[in-house]
């Protein structure tokens, strides 16, 4: 079963400040945590992909009717908090395992080493039809 | 060929020679390239078990010819017979043509009808002898996607009607410029993304150096080819000191210079010195000269900034590239103080746009000037705009370091941007 674990820029459950206001040690600990979690998931054969996205400052929205020139909207966006910041794609035995990984990611260390408690959106990836059907 | 040469190195060296021989015989670059790729994969599978053939190049040409004949089986029986007949006599290629063939293939793969995103993988496969799987892994895309990209590149070259020959003398300088640009981008692709334990990428900068060496062997008289190879060696020499244990970027000023590769520095310095003596100075030679000055400084404080500043001014007038102005501003700050550097950045935003490098250079110069609040804001702006993960982490950490207090500077030297 494949799951996307999505992280938005949205408000975190703790009162953690944005990363650029943390101490260098806290940033280092956070990055090391993410790297270690990815390494662990890769070791277990569960990690398919993990990516962080460039900041909302570089985001563009494109709408087209397929005929005329597309409408392209640049930032800054009032709703930047709803934008995707990054994701992990995992291939796991059960939905419970996906939730377990999401819980680990949510408790990543933040300011002063306290858990960020960032909401992780857990979404199952649609699979191809069962060949037996 | 001695057994000391690894199978991989041998196949990569023979790949362009086999391809050149096949194109000479059968005329079609795209089909011949597919056939050689299959022969390389067959060799990598069977040679370790059966032992290397006495004439490895002849073996590759023979097997590739047979593949080509099979590919033609369905559409043209007569053509197939011709190819097959020729394959029996294909055991001994013309050795003197090997070097020329490599060069012709480089010009073909870096054809003006191709964007670098198409030219780079095609060059890696046709000239570098890498497999599609290896190239796909290096660029982190599925193998099928990379295979299609290479097919599309070959279709474009076919459509252009390019013949298998060196470009005419009047076109040659412009075509050579394209080849060098593709190799330069390939090197940078490897250099900016190869750090860190989380990325297991093929050594793209190593491949770029190997291809630049091949170009140099084919054009020993060209000072810009020597300049590009020197630039790669002098930059690659710093790689061991460029990232920390967690993959984090370490800027030039803070690198442990004892970890720099002296052998590469000697070779690069020798190359650029010889090239500059020829008196036909181009942009890669100037960049290599700057890299050599950095590499020769035992400590960051010993860097010959006045000469680097002069070289950047020359490079800027040669290329008109606004990115060069950023480096010139850093050098100006080191010779005449941060205000001189900041003055060079004025108005640059109109030419560069809202670029992260402009914000990061300004941040460093503002920090040197003691304007902490504006430096923090610029570091944050740069971090928000970069698309490189390591750079984003570096810039965020710089903002955090300044925000945490004025006494937390990591070294006594003013920091310079990551190279």
Structure description:
- The complex is a heterodimer of chains A (133) and B (419).
- Helix content of chain A is 24%, strand content 26%.
- By secondary structure, chain A is of the alpha+beta class.
- In chain A, the strands form two sheets. A four-stranded antiparallel sheet of chain A has the order 2-5-1-6, covered by helices on one side. A two-stranded antiparallel ribbon of chain A has the order 3-4.
- By secondary structure, chain B is an all-alpha fold.
- Residues 194-200 and 408-419 of chain B have low confidence and may be disordered.
- Classes of the chains: A alpha+beta (133), B mainly alpha (419).
- Chains A and B meet through helix 1 of A and helix 20 and helix 21 of B.
Strand portion of chain B: under 5%
So how many helices of chain A? Answer: 2
Q: Over the alpha carbons, how many angstroms does the gyration radius of chain A reach?
A: 18 Å
SSE sequence of chain A, one letter per element: EHEEEEHE
Outline the low-pLDDT stretches of chain B: 194-200, 408-419
Quote the distance from N terminus to C terminus of chain B.
40 Å
For the report, how would you describe the main beta sheet of chain A?
4 strands, antiparallel
Note the beta-strand portion of chain A: 25-35%
**Side-by-side strand order of the widest sheet of chain A:** 2-5-1-6
What proportion of the residues of chain A is helical, as a percent range? Answer: 10-25%
Averaged pLDDT of chain A: 89
Our measurement of the CA-to-CA distance between the termini of chain A, rounded to an integer number of angstroms, reads 18 Å
Oligomerization status of the protein chains = heterodimer
Q: What is the molecular shape of chain B?
A: elongated
- How many β-strand runs of chain A? 6
Shape of chain A: flat
Largest interface: A-B, 20 and 24 residues
Task: Sketch the major β-sheet of chain B.
Answer: none
Helix content of chain B: 55-70%
């Amino acid at each position: 079963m494949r799951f996307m674990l999505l992280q938005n820029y949205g408000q975190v459950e703790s009162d953690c400040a944005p990363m650029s206001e943390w101490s260098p040690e806290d940033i280092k600990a956070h990055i090391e945590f993410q790297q270690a979690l990815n390494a662990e998931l890769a070791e277990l054969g569960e990690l398919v992909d993990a990516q962080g996205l460039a900041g909302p400052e570089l985001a563009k929205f494109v709408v087209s009717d397929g005929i005329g020139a597309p409408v392209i909207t640049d930032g800054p966006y009032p709703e930047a908090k709803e934008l995707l910041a990054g994701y992990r794609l995992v291939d796991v035995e059960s939905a419970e395992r996906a939730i377990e990984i999401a819980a680990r990611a949510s408790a990543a260390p933040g300011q002063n080493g306290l858990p960020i408690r960032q909401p992780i959106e857990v979404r199952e990836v649609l699979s191809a039809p069962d060949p037996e059907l | 060929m001695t057994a000391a040469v690894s199978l991989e190195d041998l196949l990569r060296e023979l790949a362009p020679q086999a391809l050149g021989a096949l194109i000479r015989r059968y005329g079609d670059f795209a089909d011949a390239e597919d056939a050689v790729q299959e022969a390389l994969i067959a060799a990598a599978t069977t040679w370790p078990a059966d032992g290397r053939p006495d004439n490895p190049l002849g073996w590759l040409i023979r097997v590739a010819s047979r593949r080509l004949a099979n590919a033609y089986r369905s559409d043209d029986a007569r053509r197939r017979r011709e190819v097959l007949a020729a394959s029996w006599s294909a055991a001994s290629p013309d050795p003197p043509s090997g070097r020329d063939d490599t060069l012709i293939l480089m010009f073909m793969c870096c054809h003006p009808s191709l964007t670098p995103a198409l030219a780079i993988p095609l060059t890696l496969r046709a000239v570098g002898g890498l497999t599609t799987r290896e190239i796909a892994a290096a660029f982190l895309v599925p193998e099928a996607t990379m295979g299609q990209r290479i097919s599309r590149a070959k279709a474009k070259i076919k459509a252009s009607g390019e013949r298998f020959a060196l470009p005419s003398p009047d076109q040659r300088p412009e075509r050579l410029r394209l080849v060098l640009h593709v190799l330069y981008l390939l090197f940078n692709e490897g250099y900016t993304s190869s750090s860190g334990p989380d990325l297991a990428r093929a050594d793209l900068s190593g491949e770029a150096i190997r291809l630049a060496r091949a170009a140099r062997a084919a054009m020993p008289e060209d000072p810009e080819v020597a300049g590009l190879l020197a630039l790669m060696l002098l930059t690659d020499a710093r790689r061991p000191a460029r990232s920390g244990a967690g993959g984090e970027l370490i800027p030039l000023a803070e690198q442990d210079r004892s970890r720099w590769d002296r052998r590469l520095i000697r070779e690069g310095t020798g190359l650029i010195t010889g090239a500059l003596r020829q008196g036909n100075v181009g942009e890669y030679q100037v960049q290599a000269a700057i890299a050599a000055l950095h590499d020769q400084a035992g400590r960051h404080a010993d860097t010959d900034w006045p000469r680097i500043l002069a070289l950047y001014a020359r490079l800027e007038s040669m290329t008109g590239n606004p990115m060069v102005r950023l480096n010139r501003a850093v050098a100006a700050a080191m010779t005449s103080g941060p205000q001189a550097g900041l003055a060079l950045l004025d108005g640059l935003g109109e030419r560069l746009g809202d670029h992260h490098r402009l914000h990061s250079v300004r941040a460093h110069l503002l920090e040197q000037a003691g304007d902490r609040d504006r430096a923090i804001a610029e570091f944050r702006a740069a971090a928000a705009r970069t698309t490189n993960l390591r750079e984003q982490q570096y810039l965020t950490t710089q903002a955090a370091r300044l925000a945490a207090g004025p006494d937390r500077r990591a070294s006594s030297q003013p920091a310079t941007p990551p190279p």
